[in-house]
């Protein structure tokens, strides 16, 4: 397997960093290739606008998706974006490693998605969801939370974690075609002891080494929807 | 009313910009004060790390929330963050104006939240949700989507928009105490004609001028949860 880990944490000694480093060791030891984009380490710029492109279709009015399609045709994405796109197309498995900040991706990682998942290049023209460009590849979120596990379900104060992550799992990863395997979560990361951390690393190892055999989350397929993109037979 | 609009769109001629400009005119004409943070115009830096602070509690290991609490005690947030916090505390009503990118906030706005909504300053020590620091103030999302309305509900291909926005409405705005009024959404923004755009502006005007009388979305209150932060009497 070729595994691409997009890593977003500002502290190199963090447990997020430990998870990424451990994933690299475990996966390489098992004969896989691993590439890491350490967004803080790279000083990745997460602001999406004209800086994404080295040429412009329309100077007077910036339409991001139009410019993305133009850049796809003309191979004119900026070098930082092009490098990330190459890793994305190279990989068989994509992993986002991040702390859950404000119930979503850290800004630096959200901006990575905004800039790298460009129209024309990663979706468009009927290429989305189960017909997406990255169909056949797998993706997984690996994250840490501040709050403990009891807070993140239907009766928990923060709401159901599956629902919280749905816009990322379904709306980002599955949108471009990835088969999304269930997320790996370290709850209450700052409050646990070393023994618990070691147990989490061991659990992560098992998840990583079985990712090929892990069934993706099942979502409705394009054929289930009518021309208004509504389910043909709700219930 | 003192209204603070955080605006996140790279094109000054966009419909998002029209909505923000119109809101300013409408609200000021009605005797309110309006402050706008145009994040692209300001070249706001959305990367959250040590740059948020002018002094440090711990040099050897960066713990963001610990540093935030230290900066709260020592008034040592960086000037760009401090300026945004002042607007946040000044306002009675907070509005986020943005295009829905990848089913979430654009990276520049997500990073604004990551940096400005600091522990100690905007939450912590039992100050959250209905006991939050901004209790009594109101907040509203105003957004545009690329897809049309039929795609964004329980039977739509993209999922229910209320569920997609829950991590923002509940997890960001309500978390720090705001009463969150229902979002204003322009669906299929790039596909509608001028007449429809004018109708949306008129609808937005009515929403803005009635915001004081609009009841916030009802969420469970802290008193409904036990010491594990689970609902005391689920069903």
TrEMBL record, chains A, B:
Q: Which GO terms describe its cellular component?
A: cytosol
- Transmembrane feature ranges: none
> Which InterPro entries does the record cross-reference, listed alphabetically?
Flavodoxin_fold, Flavoprotein-like_sf, NAD(P)H_dehydrogenase_qn
User: What are the UniProt keywords, alphabetically?
Assistant: Oxidoreductase
Q: Keyword Cytoplasm: yes or no?
A: no
Asked whether the UniProt record includes Transit peptide among its keywords, one would answer no
Show where the Flavodoxin-like fold domain sits: 1-208
Gene Ontology MF terms in the entry: NAD(P)H dehydrogenase (quinone) activity
**Which family is it part of?**
Belongs to the NAD(P)H dehydrogenase (quinone) family.
Provide the protein name. Answer: NADPH quinone oxidoreductase
